[in-house]
């Protein structure tokens, strides 16, 4: 059964408010890592673009729906929701966007825990009507080739949006920016996938480069082989 990935994009009122949001969400990530085996990852990230001083992206993965439901009901999360509700006027400068997906193909390497500054690429791609299934097959080949041939690609997840049947998201984690740009992006697997399912199939593409500031992408787990 595929795991569920939830990506939340929070927009703070200002840079100071963003740090308060990060501090609050970090407490939840610490609780999840220690006490929730079904929460496979809980990564707190911010854009590498220095001009964006208000965004926070929280990337979460749950082994199954029961793990997600239990997480949402735990005290750490209910306290967080109460805090954000009570102080929302000063903390937030815009609506929070939440994207829920299921894994289509993915892997993660334990070495990700040893990387002090992983380079994270989060992409959202919309495909033409009826094209997503074929595109996901193409992405599965990229995932397999990447896992077999790129030791410095530390994690790779291709995600099928649950609410939009045209959308695919990716969460990719690299040892550094140079490897992402000079090796992975130029690989034959990526080039072949673009040739087959790129121009002419995609209707929208958005890429956000992220920096990990708290939380985790990997822990010993059961129930899912995914990132």
TrEMBL record:
Source organism superkingdom: Eukaryota
Using the record's annotation, list all stretches that form the ABM domain.
6-73
Q: What's the name of the protein?
A: ABM domain-containing protein
Q: What organism does this protein naturally occur in?
A: Clohesyomyces aquaticus
């Amino acid at each position: 059964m595929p795991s569920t990935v939830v990506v939340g994009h929070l927009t703070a009122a200002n840079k100071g408010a963003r740090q308060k949001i990060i501090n609050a969400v970090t407490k939840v990530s610490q609780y999840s890592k220690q006490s929730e085996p079904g929460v496979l990852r809980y990564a707190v990230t911010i854009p590498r673009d220095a001009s964006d001083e208000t965004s926070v992206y929280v990337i979460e993965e749950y082994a199954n729906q029961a793990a997600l439901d239990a997480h949402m009901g735990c005290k750490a999360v209910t306290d967080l929701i109460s805090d954000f509700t009570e102080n929302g006027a000063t903390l937030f400068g815009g609506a929070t966007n939440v994207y829920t997906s299921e894994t289509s193909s993915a892997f993660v390497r334990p070495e990700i825990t040893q990387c002090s500054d992983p380079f994270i690429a989060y992409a959202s791609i919309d495909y033409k009507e009826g094209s997503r299934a074929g595109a996901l097959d193409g992405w599965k080949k990229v995932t397999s080739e990447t896992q077999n041939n790129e030791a410095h690609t530390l994690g790779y997840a291709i995600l099928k949006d649950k609410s939009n049947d045209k959308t695919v998201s990716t969460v990719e984690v690299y040892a550094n920016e140079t490897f992402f740009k000079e090796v992975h992006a130029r690989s034959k697997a990526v080039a072949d996938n673009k040739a087959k399912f790129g121009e002419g199939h995609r209707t929208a593409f958005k890429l956000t480069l992220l920096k990990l500031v708290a939380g985790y992408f990997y822990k010993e787990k059961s129930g899912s082989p995914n990132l």
